[in-house]
Specification:
By secondary structure, the chain is an alpha+beta fold. The protein contains four helices and five strands. It has a single domain, classed as 3-Layer(aba) Sandwich (QueA-like). Helices cover 32% and strands 16% of the residues. A three-stranded mixed sheet has the order 2-4-5. Helix 3 packs across helix 4. The protein is globular.
Length: 135
Amino acid sequence: GLGSFRPVQVEDLTRHRMDSEYFEITKEAADKINKIKQKGGAVVCVGTTSVRSLETAITSDHLVKPYAGWTDKFIFPPYEFKVADRLITNFHLPCSTLLMLVSAFATRDLIFKAYRKAIKEKYRFYSYGDAMIII
């Protein structure tokens, strides 16, 4: 949502509030994701909203549950991802919550190395630009 682009204006990241985004995970989708995880497969998320959604719909026994509702989950380093194993996403704005999420997914150093390469190669940034896969 648009709140993803709002600058973080607190020093203590746990005090930053994300806008809520609505999402749905059907029983069929949850079952497929759980089966993949149980077999040791990788869950590839396309976009940061799908990561936030799956990480919201996880149970204490690490199963994705069917869910229809809102998430205001703010993911930033350090964060232990429970569902998402790979991520396809854009190159995000500096100092954004989305950049913090991808930095939690890879590492800040690796993400900034990728960004330096993207700038050198003249990749397009933001919502309609080029994408990267983080594995």
